[in-house]
Specification:
GO terms for molecular function: acireductone dioxygenase [iron(II)-requiring] activity; metal ion binding. It is found in: Cell membrane; Nucleus. It is a peripheral membrane protein. One of its GO terms (biological process) is L-methionine salvage from methylthioadenosine. By secondary structure, the chain is an alpha+beta fold. The chain has one domain: Sandwich (Jelly Rolls). Helices cover 18% and strands 26% of the residues. The protein contains five helices and ten strands. The strands form two sheets. Strands 1, 2, 3, 5, 6, 7, 8 and 9 form an eight-stranded antiparallel beta sheet that branches. Strands 4-10 form a two-stranded antiparallel sheet. The longest helix is centred in the middle third of the chain and has 10 residues. The chain is globular.
Length: 222
């Protein structure tokens, strides 16, 4: 299914979170021994909210404390949302499908192998939306220099990854994340593992968020 083109992103009327509310992000090595660890460089190299936005990441801080959600519901009707902020985001961005999952050894059969699969670098041919209802974990995304950026997502974080971005996901060392997945239209979770540079969604992403070459970096620094 490499012919599907990137859908036009619909701007939400709900303002994104203040920079101070965004999750912490930092560079990590190309290879890691323990995917559940922080894996910060020595010294740590933080990544700014501005740099996350440059690669297409969007983020909203939600109220996950005041509303109850099931441990698992596949599907879960987003029209059942009681949170007015979530309702507005749903309507603004056209999310018509949702499900709720819990990634934990007690709730996800074959936990270790599933997490290894989630940690394979891949793209999707649609925007990826995750609302963290409990627990915590990491989204790793490639920046414009093709370096890994680790974003530490926790309860109350709602983050979107643009169609075509190279990324991967894992729990952190607590091995628990309770999350809502939202989707426009019929949900398709198919991953296309790297390399997939000829995939239409990847080409569209590169057009929208062009990589920064070493020559361009030197020119900008001059």
């Amino acid at each position: 299914n490499c012919q599907k083109t990137m859908t036009d992103s619909k701007t939400s009327g709900l303002p994104e979170a203040d920079p101070s509310d965004w999750p912490e992000a930092w560079l990590i090595p190309d290879e890691v021994e323990d995917q559940y660890a922080l894996n910060k460089l020595e010294p740590n190299v933080p990544v700014s909210v501005e740099d996350l936005k440059k690669i297409g990441i969007s983020y909203w801080k939600m109220d996950a404390e005041s509303y109850e959600y099931p441990t698992k519901s596949v599907p879960w009707d987003p029209k059942d949302a009681m949170d007015p902020k979530l309702n507005q985001l749903r309507d603004d961005r056209g999310y018509s499908y949702a499900d709720i999952i819990t990634v934990h050894p007690d709730h996800l059969p074959d936990f270790e192998n599933k997490l290894k699969a989630f940690f394979e670098e891949h793209i999707h041919d649609a925007e990826e939306i995750r609302y963290i209802l409990g627990g915590s974990g990491f989204f790793d995304v490639r920046d414009q220099e093709d370096k890994w950026v680790r974003v530490h997502i926790k309860k109350g974080d709602l983050m979107t990854l643009p169609e075509g971005i190279y990324h991967r996901f894992t729990c952190d060392d607590k091995h628990l994340i309770h999350a809502m997945r939202l989707f426009k239209g019929v949900p398709v979770w198919t991953p296309f593992n790297r390399p997939c540079d000829d995939h239409e969604s990847r080409k569209k992403y590169v057009e929208s968020f062009p990589p920064v070459t070493e020559g361009k970096q030197l020119q900008e620094a001059a």
